[in-house]
Design goal:
Layout: E1 2-6, E2 13-17, E3 22-30, E4 33-40, E5 48-50, E6 58-63, E7 66-74
Parallel strand pairs: 1-7
Antiparallel strand pairs: 1-2, 2-3, 3-4, 4-5, 6-7
Length: 75
């Protein structure tokens, strides 16, 4: 499981992952509130979107290597 370290959820920010790779968190508005787009620089990690995020959330994502899991760590 790869941990995604997040400092703030109200603005675009660079992400640091426990495996040493990087990405970007992009908050976005939706018709029902807000959501979050996660994009990663490493093509082996699958990008994904979430309606909400909480500390400790575990997210399963399909990637080119099969299913992978991310855990959210809010700081």
């Amino acid at each position: 499981m790869t941990t995604i370290y997040i400092h703030r959820i109200d603005q675009v920010q660079p992400l640091r992952l426990s495996d040493g790779t990087a990405g970007t968190l992009i908050p976005c508005k939706t018709p029902t509130g807000r959501g979050f787009t996660f994009t990663f620089l490493n093509p082996l990690h699958g990008n994904f979107w979430r309606a909400s995020i909480m500390d400790g959330d575990v997210i399963r994502v399909a990637s080119i290597n099969g299913a992978e899991q991310f855990q959210i760590a809010l700081h």
